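ok so dumb question maybe but i'm new to this and my supervisor (M.) told me to 'just get the structure for SHSP domain-containing protein' and walked off. so i did the thing. is this what she meant?? sequence i used:
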Amino acid sequence: MSIIPSVFGRRSNILDPLSLDLWDPFHDWPSNETSQFAAAKIDWKETPEAHVFKADVPGLKKEEVKVEVEEGNVLQISGERSRDKEEKNDTWHRVERSSGKFLRRFRLPENAKLDQIKASMENGVLTVSVPKEEVKKPDVKPIQISG
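this is what came out, is it supposed to look like this??
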């Protein structure tokens, strides 16, 4: 039993100085393998030349991440982070790093060059660059005004 009283139904452990969680709104939510890591954070920006996606995937190797294009111009980024192996004599005090599968999909605009997509990983950040077709500006011909 804890010496520190429960706050919002959560117990704290006086022996663990980091255990005083005042409020965790997701504490009692149902959990499954996919939901733990499903919210991989991804930014999407558009430049004049391309659509650029940056995904935070710390701890993953490039072999553990997939970048695919599905029918209908859908970019799919997926992967899986495995749990650490538990040894018989291990005592876990806190598990905060998420594990499990993640999958994110983005519908790309019609001007995406799907055959020229590039992806790279550096320091736990996946960068996917989707070049855009150059938008042709209509030729404008001046018309003489008579009269």
